[in-house]
Amino acid sequence: MTESTVVALATPLPQPSALAIIRVSGPLTEALVARFFVPKNPGPLKPWRLRRGNWHDVEGLVDDITLVFYRAPQSYTGEDMCEIFCHGNPVFCDQIIGNLVDAGAERAQPGEFTRRALLEGRMGLLEAEALHELVTAKTRFQADLIRQQHSSPLVKALQQHVQTILGIQAHIEATIDYGEEDIDALQRPLMLQQLSSMLDDLKQLKKTASFALGMKRGFRVLLAGAPNVGKSTLFNALLDRERAIVSEWPGTTRDYLAEEVEINGLPVVLIDTAGLRETEDMIEAEGIRRVTHLFGEVDLVLVLVDPEHGIPSLPPPEVLPSERLLIVANKSDVSQATGADLAISARDGRGLSQLEAQIVLRLSSAVTGQSAYLINQRQEDVVAQAITLLQHAIQDTSDGHGEEILSSYLNQLRQQLGELTGETTVEDLLDRMFASFCLGK
Question: What is the pTM of this model?
Fold first, then answer.
């Protein structure tokens, strides 16, 4: 348990509001609050009960407040804690916090309350990270996915892998202890099967990190195709407002436009590009060059075709794999183009709802059917390192190297998985993680 008592505002300011919440946590919470709180109905503070009263300092009345006192360990932080509900005037909030600091409390650092909850065992590292992502979620879709992580499906999946590693290490230790020269011929293929299955799981898990990144910065969807195929019309239709210039003249869009839009709960950065064609116009040619460069950087390329324009020349699959490519036939109100994944009419809106559903399906494929997934860069980095260690372990097992080398890799692998869940987390990692939290959380 920490020795200090901390205080911070838990609601956003400085704009005035009807109410504000001030959090206090630590061993001196009850004593510090009691110095300034005068309840309407006299009596000691009782845990988990809402009390109304006045906040007084040496100069007199500060504010009419209510508060709730929580007794350790049944609080958010696992410590004695109090939440003070005052009027949302910054003057009152500063005065109450200042009173508590003058009396012996410390101003909380970003993420201080959640950090204490983590250290007191009230939540795990993955839950703390999920809470931070939930607070900053941009859409309902993202929030719903993050809430699933509070039940710790990732922890359960990783614990199964740790048990597998321990089982393999137990057999290796027995081999060494009993003086056998090598892992027996029957056991080695089983180990390889177990390690390979674990590698497949971790690789699939790593893919989910791209979805988390897309949810934060917006999934980049590129509209490509020949000039005058209807890209700008579709761009405006998906935005539900006119942003791109729609013209019958080819080459109207000479660079590219980018706008944020929410499609069925997913944040999308929609990019309208120059038409792909041979041209002697230097400005238009530069726009086309930029488009081809974007093919390998975006999350989804939506290629528009119509009865007059087929599929343009596209990058090879290693640059633009099929799962990031969607062929859409436009102008279906006029006639049908062939070879497309679906048909729409950007002009009259025909098929747009089906197109939006397909966009979401392609972008969320990494988490479809997944109960556990990664939600930030730290988690992706740890899993990437675990994958590298596992690949070395599989290679050494296949090559018949000594058991000590394999056991060393497996020890490092357990360390990595423990860092992911917080079981082997070092202090500087917590410093980096909680620095991005808001005050009062």
Answer: 0.69
